[in-house]
Amino acid sequence: MSFLVRGVRVALALILMVSASMAQAAADPIDRSALARAVCSDGAGLARGAEDVVRSAATASADDLAFSGSILRALLDRRLACVGDTAVLLDRPGGSEGRDAATGATRSAAGARSPVLGLRQRGLVETGAGVVALLTGASTAQRSAGLATLERRAAAVPEADTILERARAAETDAVLRAAIVQAMQAAALNAPEPARRRAAIGAIADAPSSAARSRLASLRTDPAYAADPAFKAALDAGIARVERAVTIGDGLALSYNALSFASILFMAAVGLAIIFGLMGVINLAQGELIMVGAYAAYGVQEAFRMVAPGLIDLYLVAAIPVAFLASAGVGIVVEALILRHLYRRPLMSLLATWAVSLFLINLVRVVFGSQNLQFGMPSYVSGGVPLYADFIVTWNRLFAIAFAAVTLAATLLILKRTPLGLDIRAVTQNRDMAGALGIRTRRVDRLAFGFGSGLAGLAGVALCPIYSVNPGMGATFIVDSFMVVVLGGVGTVVGTVVAALGIGGANVLIEPFYGAVAAKVIVLIGIIVFLQRRPEGLFVARRRR
User: Fold this and answer.
1) pLDDT digits over 481-522, tens only?
2) How far apart, in whole angstroms, are the C-alpha atoms of residue 178 and residue 183?
3) 275-329 pLDDT, tens per residue?
4) Could you state, in order of their start, the residue ranges of all structural domains in the chain?
5) pTM for this predicted structure
6) Beta pairing class for 97-100 and 86-90
7) Are strands 384-388 and 391-394 parallel, antiparallel or unpaired?
8) Which sign does the torsion angle of CA 286, 292, 295, 297 carry?
9) Cα 13–19–23 angle (5° rounding)?
């Protein structure tokens, strides 16, 4: 019995040894010495060497591919010299010393000659170097460049399918892997077998995009479209599927952009709604308070860069309280020094806040300059994920939407569940009665102005990953913010939310058809017509008299 067990073990060991040797033979088909001699022979030998690299790339080992790539890249960079029939890899073009390509030993290149690449040889060498870069490139950029080279010369590479399949299986970058799959589909579309072409059409239709639609539409000029009814039916069905999916994806993208823009509008307008509803002050400096919040976020980023560069990704989160306090502090100072003398004089308060906005803009220009600030994008607001067709959920816009939702919840909580919120609502409904009941209305005004200004600072933080930050950024949002406040109803947070959704959505939906300026004009006209019918806006804040 023990003899039988030992026999089985020996047999298994032999099988494993044979399998390993066969796998090694299958994965090591490049003759390194032959390649090193080929590049130093005549033009025909050099061409055969490059062709052998391409032909063996699908099964060659990573070490063999790296060796072949170093020789082909040295040829293209003019860093390869031939001493007799030996290839020497130079440290730099025209150098006098290098290393033997076959043995790796240091060798003099005195009296060496440089191989001459004709048009055919150069094309083959570039193809081989591109294939090697696609399969073994250290960076995504190198592998992407190799893919581009293979796509350009796919017709001259019979092994393109297997090379692309090996690259797809090994690729770790999702975007590049998708590009490799597209290249595989494009190669299959040009295959001579009708069944394979029809299968490629179905595969492309299963991953719809604008690029896929263009790729399929170009096949309508193919002779097979008129000659082969099965091919024609498959192509028409595939194009119809892709067009439906692209239409749905475009609609989702428009809705997503509209929601993100509406979120920014809400963030910019909610503080203005509180200030206007409580105090009747038309604060033309609200846009500049947004700018203060954005510049405060920039200051936090630079502080992290100097003090804790390893935690730089956290600067956007840390900037939230800093931006709120910075804008709230500016608002309280403005209210204490200027606006408290101008209550019940709306025209003077409007001019005063306009002067404050001009002062803040020019102060920032003097201190920081007029150029756009450069923000480093944390990983959680960079990039996105493809969801359907051309619709990509970008993290920066999703951050703005989530931030606006949290701000809305916090604002409602403060207004409904805190003593300050109770005082603000009481003063908004009837200032004189609130004062008679012991509420310090002047203190409420100051705190409410600071709170509304702080909300504008939060809008500045939300804008950092999406829009350009510069001294004039506030003017972009002040008009839209006032339209949101007036349409939603003065002093109502819920009305501000609904109006922001309506105005933001209308702007984004109209803009692709008529342009940005025309979209704003159309929206403004619509608001004017609506206010003629309902001057108090969508929602009316309760007031007691």
Assistant:
1) 888 888 888 767 888 888 899 888 888 888 888 887 888 888
2) 9
3) 877 667 778 888 899 999 999 999 999 999 998 888 888 899 999 999 999 999 9
4) 33-78+117-190, 249-371+379-533
5) 0.70
6) antiparallel
7) antiparallel
8) negative
9) 145
Beta bridge partners of 107: 98
- Written as one letter, the residue type at 472 is G
Residue 99: helix, strand or coil by DSSP? strand
DSSP 8-state code for residue 378: P
CA distance 224 to 217: 13
Which option is the CATH number for 249-371+379-533: 3.50.50, 3.30.450, 1.10.3470, 1.20.120? 1.10.3470
Pairing of strands 97-100, 106-108: antiparallel
Distance CA(282)–CA(512), nearest Å, equals 32
**DSSP code of residue 220:** G
Can you tell me which residue has the tokens 């756009």?
A: 372
Q: Please give the torsion angle defined by the CA atoms of residues 179, 259, 463 and 266, in that order, rounded to the nearest 10 degrees.
A: 180
CA distance 232 to 413: 61
Contact 278, 248 (CB under 8 A): no
Other C-beta atoms closer than 10 Å to the C-beta of 516 total: 12
Average pLDDT of the chain, as a whole number? 82
Helices (H), 140-228: 140-152, 160-170, 174-189, 194-206, 210-217, 223-227
Q: Are 476 and 520 in contact (CB under 8 A)?
A: no
- Spatial separation of the C-alpha atoms in residues 393 and 253, rounded to whole Å: 8
Looking at residue 60, the DSSP 8-state letter turns out to be -
DSSP 75: H
| 534 residue type, one letter | R
Exposed (0-12), middle (13-18) or buried (19+): which is 475, by Cβ within 10 Å? middle
Q: What are phi and psi of 184, to 5 degrees?
A: -65, -40
Paired strand residues for 80: 89
Angle at the Cα of 206 (from 205 to 208), degrees rounded to 5? 60
Helices (H), 41-116: 43-56, 62-76
230's enclosing H/E stretch is helix 229-279
Show Cβ contacts of residue 378 under 8 Å, excluding neighbours closer than 6 positions: 312, 313, 314, 315, 316
Structure tokens at 170: 């090994």
Residue carrying structure tokens 């060498």? 125
- 6 contact partners, CB below 8 Å, separation of at least 6: none
Residues 142 and 155: their CA atoms lie apart, in Å, by 22
